[in-house]
Amino acid sequence: MSQVNDEKLQLFIGKMLGDLGGAFCVPTTRIGLRLGLFDALYGEGPLTVEDLAAKAGGLAARYVREWALAQAANGFIDYDPEAETFSLSPEQAMVFAVKDSPVYLAGAFGLVAAMIEGEKMVEQAFRSGTGVHWGDTAPCLFCATGAFFRPGYANNIVQNWLPSLRGVSEKLKAGAKVADVGCGVGFSTLLMASAFPESRFTGFDFHAPSIEEARRHAEQHGLADRVRFETAKAKEIAESDFDLVSSFDCLHDMGDPRGCATHMRRILKRDGTWMIVEPIAGDKARDNMNPIGRLYYNGSTMICVPTSLDQEVGEGLGAQAGEAKLVEVIRAGGFSDVRRATEGPFNMVIEARA
After folding, report:
1. CA distance 94 to 102
2. pTM
3. 30 pLDDT band (50/70/90 cuts)?
4. Beta strand residue intervals within 194-280, DSSP E
5. What's the rounded mean pLDDT across residues 113-133?
6. 1, pLDDT greater than 80
7. Taking 90 as the threshold, does the pLDDT of residue 293 lie above it?
8. Parallel, antiparallel, or unpaired: how do β-strands 85-87 and 78-80 relate?
9. DSSP assignment string, 284-335
10. Of 59, 211, 265, 298, which sees the most CB atoms within 10 A?
11. pLDDT grade, residue 243 (50/70/90)?
12. Which long-range contacts (C-beta less than 8 Å, at least 24 apart) are formed by 103-109?
């Protein structure tokens, strides 16, 4: 073993303390979100512990004090040590209280908890080389995943992603037939349906509990008359003649993404469009050594790759496959016109046409 550089060691320890602090904050943050403590601070002036506990529904002040000091140490809320009060800045509120904010991250904390819950199953998969069935990792995984992606979808699908596709928004306004493949709990499908009342939408997903939840969401939003949700694997969708097929953050999770691409080509109209939204990534692993890549590689280790390896073929693209690999897979399905239509800090949008 080479000699330890003390300066590098101290820097690394400092990094680890920061990272462990982030890990330790997950359960306290989730408690605060569930109990409405962030919401109680939102839009209010500074609150004492007693006022915060009362405003959150009569919680125990001693617990609330420790929680508030923990969140202040996290930097998630502000603390005035002279007045002994706590507050939520507008920037902090965007992350913890404004549910339609593009950076509302409550779902991310639920996703972390789901990954920890599935740790034993994924560890066993490391030993066996097999996969872990979607939904078995943790009971709340599919709901946490939906909550994690919803803010990005609510702020981008209609506003940025669909308009980046050639002629698609015009078709949707006039009345189009749309398949949302890998729809999960239906947030993406319902957002599109709300924006384009003349079009008809069907969400497909291989996970039956997700489809049940999506149907409940459709009823709650009054969209069940023109939005359907069906349980089906991507390669087994029997309907066809779609003007648009969308696949949000799911192609890399599929066991046979090439087979999926081939079937998407079959079920589209001759002039139809397949919109593939995938995590942003460079084509080389070295390009992804950054905070976004860190999140996606860890999530992919615990969720995406085990899910893919559990399915037929089990290609295991992973959440950082990169554009070049994704385009190769899409072209293998018979699409000759493939381009990156737009991108954001977390996603790339690929447009595929025959």
Report:
1. 8
2. 0.94
3. very high
4. 200-205, 227-231, 242-248, 268-279
5. 96
6. no
7. yes
8. antiparallel
9. SGGGG-SHHHHHHHHHIIIIIHHHHHTSSS-----TT--HHHHHHHHHHTT-
10. 211
11. very high
12. 103/151, 104/151, 105/151, 106/33, 106/147, 107/144, 107/145, 107/146, 107/147, 107/148, 107/149, 107/150, 107/151, 108/148, 109/26, 109/29, 109/30, 109/33
The helix/strand/coil state of 75 is coil
Closest CA to 87 of 51, 29, 42, 57: 42
3-class SS of residue 177? strand
Tokens, residue 291 = 């905070």
Q: Are 308 and 120 in contact (CB under 8 A)?
A: no
pLDDT in tens, 269-282: 999 999 999 999 99
Residue with tokens 């991250």: 105
Q: Please, what is the end-to-end C-alpha distance for the chain in angstroms? A: 56
- Distance of CA 325 to CAs 182, 252, 284, Å? 20, 10, 10
Percentage of residues in the chain with pLDDT exceeding 90?
Answer: 96
Per-residue pLDDT, 308: 98
Tokens, residue 340 = 């990156």
222-253 b/e (C-beta count within 10 Å ≥ 16 → b): ebeeebbbbebbbbebeeeebbbbbbbbbbbb
Strands (E), the chain: 78-80, 85-87, 177-181, 200-205, 227-231, 242-248, 268-279, 337-343, 347-353
Distance (Å, whole) CA 22 – CA 29: 10
> What is the structure's pLDDT at 137?
80
Lookup: tokens for 53:
């506990």
Long-range contacts of 165-170 (CB under 8 A, 24+ apart): 165/273, 165/275, 165/341, 165/349, 165/351, 166/273, 166/351, 166/353, 167/273, 168/243, 168/244, 168/273, 168/275
